[in-house]
Specification:
About 70% of the residues lie in helices and about 0% in strands. It starts with a helix and ends in a 12-residue tail after the last helix. α1 crosses α2. The chain is globular. The chain has one domain: Serine Threonine Protein Phosphatase 5, Tetratricopeptide repeat (Alpha Horseshoe), CATH 1.25.40. The chain has about 100 residues and is mainly α.
Length: about 100
C-alpha cells in the first residue's frame, strides 16, 4: 500500500475513534489514548488526560497504562508511589498482569 493510502486509512480510523470517544464510548477513548501515546508524534498530554478520565471510571487498562506513565515519567513527572496506586487499582479491577509491578 502506498504511503499516501496508508496515511489516509490511519486518519480515517483516527476520525472514527475521535467521533466515538466524543459520543462517550470508553473503549474508543482507550484506543485513542493508545494512539496518542505511540503515534508518530506522541501527545502524552492527551494520553494522560484520557487515561485519567477512564481511571476515574475504574477501567483497569487505563489505570495500568497511567501507572506505566508514572513509573517511567512519560509526559508526566515520574512518581513511583502514584504508579503503585494505579497498578493496585488496576489489579483490584481485574487486570491480573498489573500485579507484576506490585512484586518488583
Amino acid at each position: 500500500m502506498s504511503k499516501i493510502l496508508e496515511e489516509a486509512r490511519k486518519n480515517s480510523e483516527m476520525a472514527i475513534l475521535q467521533a466515538k470517544a466524543a459520543a462517550g464510548d470508553d473503549i474508543a477513548k482507550l484506543k485513542l489514548g493508545y494512539y496518542y501515546a505511540i503515534g508518530i508524534t506522541p501527545n502524552y498530554g492527551e494520553t494522560i488526560k484520557i487515561f485519567e478520565e477512564l481511571s476515574q471510571k475504574n477501567i483497569p487498562e487505563a489505570q495500568y497504562n497511567l501507572g506505566i506513565m508514572y513509573l517511567y515519567g512519560c509526559g508526566i513527572e515520574r512518581n513511583e508511589n502514584k504508579a503503585i496506586k494505579m497498578f493496585e487499582k488496576a489489579a483490584e479491577n481485574g487486570l491480573d498482569y498489573a500485579k507484576i509491578f506490585l512484586y518488583i
